[in-house]
Amino acid sequence: MLKGFKDFLMRGNIVDLAVAVVMGTAFVAVVTAFTDGIITPLLAVFGGTNQLGLGFQLIADKPATFIAIGPIITAGIDFLIIAALLYFILVVPAKKAKKMMGVEDDDALTDNELLHQIRDLLAERTSDPQR
Questions:
Q1: Which domains does the chain have, with CATH numbers?
Q2: 31-70 per-position pLDDT tens digit
């Protein structure tokens, strides 16, 4: 029972997923600090004299009715920066490493090649009397 659990944990996809989660968390912290320290103050420049930042107030003299647009823009910038970093730091090098190692990518098969493989497998299966 423990051997099966160990095999499950040591499966390549699980380890890759764990690394990706840790790396993603680290990138989120760095990018959030960058946007909070640089992007948010730059967005506040466009917010006017309002203490609450970039946005608009639905009812005058009621700060609770302020709709903040700055955090939405900051979150979008966070997402774009994190996605770009993960792509260029993790995905592109992984693809290059697979190519250098000669690992075939199943996604590279064309529709016709895939159909030929299915046909061949079905032909083998029907010709094998043990199945």
A1: 2-127 (1.10.1200.120)
A2: 888 887 887 777 777 766 656 677 777 888 887 788 878 7
- Burial (0-12, 13-18, 19+ Cβ within 10 Å), 74: buried
* Cα–chain center distance at 28: 11
Query: Under 8 Å CB-to-CB from 23, ≥6 apart: which residues?
Result: 86, 89, 90
Tokens of 40: 């948010």
Number of residues written out for the chain: 131
Six token digits for residue 22: 């840790």
Q: Which pair of structure tokens corresponds to residue 84? A: 């770009």
Q: Which of 13, 14, 25, 12 is nearest to 86 (CA)?
A: 25
* CB neighbour list of residue 70: distance below 8 Å, 6 or more residues apart: 40, 43, 44, 47, 53, 54, 55
* Verdict on whether the full-model pTM lies above 0.85: no
